Amino acid sequence: MPIRDLVTLVQTPTQEPHWVVKGILPRGSMTVLAGEAGTGKSLLCYHLSLCAALGLPFLGTYATCQTRVLYIDEENGLPDATRYWQWSWRGAGCPDPATLRAITFAHMALGHAWESTLLTLAKTHQPGLIIIDTATPALQIIDENDNAEASRKIQTLRTAQAAADNETAIVVLKHAKVQDEKGHRRTIRGAKTWLGSVDSVLFHSYNVGRPGKLRQTLLTPDKVRAFGLDHSIKITPSWTAADEPKGLVLKGSVVTE
């Protein structure tokens, strides 16, 4: 019977969780990363995947603990996905391609039997990080506003998380919208069950720059439990070279205001 001695608990020295990205993404957690179209959510997560799989600092700043990654992409066409991976790999300094085998890239692979396929992938590869890009197509969501359907999808993700048996963290990409034009309050598009059922919610939004150009973005926490991101991060992109083949470098800095 899971009854805990509260006297012992409150006197136990505080222990930080295991991390995928220290201070941002704990192992065993589920996070929603939401952003408007064009903010670069996929690029950010491709970068995250490489950093986690190779043990490189995320955004050049935040330490990672090396782990296997399962990236499920049901959003981006193969030409775009290929270019994004190339940019991210070159931006990371072109590490040995053999090391990329720590990433399982499932592209348009789930299909109608997505639940069983996801479960099989989780059991087979035992990733420490699963990224779902993006929720609606990947999880075959029929009614984006249906909270009951959202609950069922989240439960399936929890089942896959347990099946991976690796203290697995899950990041689910979703679309965001501005709820309050005056205060620019953001929320996710569709069922709000996602907000209450996950461990953290991060918003990826534009900061400065013109469409079609490299633009600064912000990563802002909206919901955080005991452990996770507690400040906003300004993300500044840059190219490694003026000509092809070029790589994309993402650098993060703490927003203090």
User: How many helices?
Assistant: 7
Mean pLDDT: 93
| Oligomerization category of the chains in this entry | single chain
Say how many strands there are.
12
Secondary structure class reads alpha/beta
- Percent helix: 25-40%
Low-confidence blocks of residues: none
* Radius of gyration, taken over Cα atoms and rounded to an integer in Å: 18 Å
Strand content: 25-35%
Distance between the termini: 46 Å
Which geometry do the CA atoms define?
globular
User: Main sheet?
Assistant: 10 strands, mixed
In sequence order, what are the helices and strands, one letter per element? HEEEHEHEHEHHEEHEEEE
Task: Walk me through the topology.
Elements: H1 6-11, E1 19-21, E2 25-26, E3 30-35, H2 41-54, E4 69-73, H3 78-91, E5 103-107, H4 114-125, E6 129-133, H5 135-138, H6 147-164, E7 169-180, E8 185-188, H7 193-197, E9 200-208, E10 216-223, E11 232-239, E12 248-255
Parallel strand pairs: 3-7, 3-9, 4-5, 4-6, 6-7
Antiparallel strand pairs: 1-2, 7-8, 9-10, 10-11, 11-12
Helix pairs in contact: 2-3, 4-6
Structure notes:
With 257 residues, the chain is of the alpha/beta class. The protein contains 7 helices and 12 strands. Strands 3, 4, 5, 6, 7, 8, 9, 10, 11 and 12 form a 10-stranded mixed β-sheet that branches. Strand 11 (232-239) and strand 12 (248-255) form a beta hairpin. Helix 2 (41-54) packs across helix 3 (78-91) and helix 4 (114-125) runs parallel beside helix 6. The longest helix is centred in the middle third of the chain and has 18 residues, at 147-164. The chain starts with 5 loop residues before the first helix and ends with a strand.
